[in-house]
Design brief:
The protein has 70 residues and is mostly helical. The protein is built from two helices and two strands, in the order αββα.
Amino acid sequence: FLVMLIPFFIVNGILTGSFIEDQVVWYSDSEIIGIRLFTIPIEDTVYAFTMILTNLVLVEYLQKKFSAIK
């Protein structure tokens, strides 16, 4: 799970200005909570966690369901 987050932090960090002089994506502080993990809004991080965990949970559930049928 943590390995899957490495590309997220690299790409999102570049887009929000961590590794470059000017950011590609601009977030209005009035539209987000205002908490950032480095330059990445916490909402993006929570969204990434949710998307990855949802897929992992779904795969685990389906594997258990279909292995019980056999």
